[in-house]
Amino acid sequence: MVTSSAAQPAQVSTLSGVGALLMKGVAALVAPCGPAVLGVAVLLPDRHWIVLLVGTLTTAVSVPGSVALWRLASRNRAGTRRLEAIGVRATAEVLTSTLTGSDEGHTYEVVMRVSGLGFEPFEVTQRRTGSAGLSAGARLQALVDPFDRSFTILN
User: Fold this and answer.
1) DSSP codes of every residue in 29-67
2) Are 81 and 72 in contact (CB under 8 A)?
3) What is the C-alpha to C-alpha distance for residues 137 and 53, in angstroms, rounded to an integer?
4) Which residues are CB-neighbours of 12 under 8 A, at least 6 positions away?
5) Of 31, 39, 69, nearest in space to 56 by CA
6) Which residues are CB-neighbours of 68 under 8 A, at least 6 positions away?
7) Other C-beta atoms within 10 Å of 2: how many?
8) Hey, how many other C-beta atoms are within 10 angstroms of the C-beta on 67?
9) 133 pairs with which residues across the strands?
10) 3-state DSSP helix/strand/coil percent for the chain, to nearest 5?
11) Quick one: pLDDT at residue 133?
12) Cβ 141 vs Cβ 92: under 8 Å
């Protein structure tokens, strides 16, 4: 049993291969938009300053945004793969569930105790939407890395 109490639990955002592919596809489509507008602006005979400005601003937003989206997809997919490879099945028992917002659906602050074989139980607090299965005493499935206590709630 791993008993490292120094590592704080960290939730891993799970991302499937299809999800990663879609995120990277969007990044690949958005990245060239700014340079394309800038290229058209340069090729225009009168080189209108508004088109040059729009092209420059679009490039300044689309390229770094696309790089950030690509990196986020890669990082989340790598975390998911690692957790799937070395994670152990666990149970997350809902200790308390408090309604914190109901603007666009119900948002709850849920305190859970995550326990399983190979690691010390720990408590986490999450914001979750929906109402199914969020009452005190409910048990959710989780996957936990026993070494660094990273986890994901599967349902």
Assistant:
1) HHTTHHHHHHHHHHHSSS--HHHHHHHHHHHHHHHHHHH
2) no
3) 57
4) 76, 79, 80, 83, 150, 151, 152
5) 39
6) none
7) 13
8) 12
9) none
10) 40, 30, 30
11) 61
12) yes
For residue 70, what pLDDT is reported?
Answer: 95
How high is the mean pLDDT of the chain? 85
Q: Decide if pLDDT at 1 tops 50.
A: no
- pTM here is 0.70
Q: What is the CA radius of gyration of the chain?
A: 22
Q: Read off the tokens for 140.
A: 């959710």
**In angstroms, how far apart are the furthest CA atoms of the chain?**
72
pLDDT in tens, 12-51: 877 888 989 999 999 999 999 989 988 888 888 877 788 8
Answer yes or no: are the C-beta atoms of 15 and 24 closer than 8 Å: no
Backbone angles phi, psi at 127, to 5 degrees: -100, 125
Scanning the structure block, which residue is given the tokens 């939407």?
A: 129
Instruction: Kindly give, in sequence order, each residue whose CB lies less than 8 Å from that of residue 95, ignoring residues fewer than 6 positions away.
Output: 111, 112, 113, 123, 136
